Amino acid sequence: MNDLWVFGYASLIWRPGFDYEERAKARLGGYRRALCIHSYVHRGTPERPGLVFGLDRGGSCVGMAFRIAGEKGEDVTAYLRERELVTNVYRELRLPVRLADGRRVEALTYVVDRGHSQYAGSLDVETAAAIVRRSHGQSGANIDYVRSCYQEIAALGLRDGWLEQLVHRLPGRG
Fold first, then answer.
1. What residue spans of 25-120 are helical by DSSP H?
2. Using the 8-state DSSP alphabet, how is residue 89 labeled?
């Protein structure tokens, strides 16, 4: 069986939830990380939606690629479908990513469906901060999710000016 690669760009970076054989910094072309999805389950509710990251068209995104042993591929894919496809706001695709060491691999990737009712599009920082401050879902406070993603993105040596502005508008930033 061939190994499975999974591309993580937000919470999968810091909380993959599965065992892996290898973890490597990777770049996905054609998509950018964006806080562009209304969350009705994990970080909000239908009455008070939160915001979560998605891969939206344009640019590129640096994240983490995880190599899963072939015999565990089906189980990891099932787990990811249960985690990521709760409301079907993501499309599951296999896309080429380039690892930091230059290797190119095809990775299981979850990309936002712009036609889905939960697609928030591009929000200004103030609007996004107000949504994040007030939202809480089954997986916890929206603030904790955004802060954790920001910290892990920064730990990769990446700067995201829009996300930095957002985090500075959140309470308790230490």
1. 73-84
2. -
